[in-house]
Amino acid sequence: MTKYRRADPEISRRKFINVALGTAGAVGGLGLVTALAGVRPPNRITAGKVPAIEGDILVYAEGAQSGQPLKASDLTDKITRAWPQGKDKDGKPVIKKDEPNNLLIVFKFPPAEIVAPTDLKGVQDGVVAYSGICQHLGCQVGDNPSKPETILCPCHSGAYDPRAGCKVIGGPPPKPLPQLPIKLDAGGVMATGSLNGPYYGLTESDWKSLLEEAKTI
């Protein structure tokens, strides 16, 4: 299996770990693990680590319904965290939570509020999904109580607009959160493709290679 190389970090490993530990209270346990993912050694791909691909269903990542398929009727304009669930070679369901960068955030907005640069072909009935991982240093993003129309990374105050392709509207993130194209299926949410950009910390070329290998797992 192929090993994947992460892009050079913006700060030293030791300094980043200190930053991540310092923000653990704000980000939470899952968010801390995600933040540290960018400084771990290269990984070998497994069924639980491959990115979301076409046909994966989205399942709740937390709460009483953790591991159960998302219900479109439960979605709101606030973050719902989800994992993609695919199948292994034997056809058994696999929740892809062994790779923290697979964490997704899902919303439901009035359709007229969703505008470019959102990929509108990847949205259905106001439901839109993005990576839940900040593109600055790999922390987990969350709702922004002071500006509820945006989402916020608690590590360095990166802000995104989920109604407009999760474009960056404040702070240091260098690019938008990647969008996952979806459709509604039997009351749930299904991926119709993969994220339209790399995980935090992966190069474009490694991301493309990872997506190709994901099809074989």
Write the layout of secondary structure elements.
Elements: H1 13-22, H2 24-27, H3 29-36, E1 57-60, E2 80-87, E3 93-95, E4 104-108, E5 127-131, E6 142-143, E7 151-152, E8 159-161, E9 167-170, E10 179-180, E11 182-185, E12 188-191, H4 204-214
Antiparallel strand pairs: 1-2, 2-3, 2-4, 4-5, 5-10, 6-7, 7-8, 8-9, 11-12
Cofactor: [2Fe-2S] cluster
Keywords: 2Fe-2S, Disulfide bond, Iron, Iron-sulfur, Membrane, Metal-binding, Transmembrane, Transmembrane helix
InterPro entries: Rieske_2Fe-2S (IPR017941), Rieske_2Fe-2S_sf (IPR036922), Rieske_Fe-S_prot (IPR014349), Rieske_Fe-S_prot_C (IPR005805), TAT_signal (IPR006311)
Proportion in helices: 10-25%
Quickly give the structural class.
alpha+beta
The proportion of strand residues reads 15-25%
Number of discrete helical segments: 4
How many β-strand runs? 12
Low-confidence stretches: 1-29, 36-42
Give a short account of the largest sheet: 6 strands, antiparallel
Whole-number total of structural domains? 1
GO molecular function: 2 iron, 2 sulfur cluster binding; metal ion binding
Protein name: Rieske 2Fe-2S domain-containing protein
Cofactor: [2Fe-2S] cluster
Keywords: 2Fe-2S, Disulfide bond, Iron, Iron-sulfur, Membrane, Metal-binding, Transmembrane, Transmembrane helix
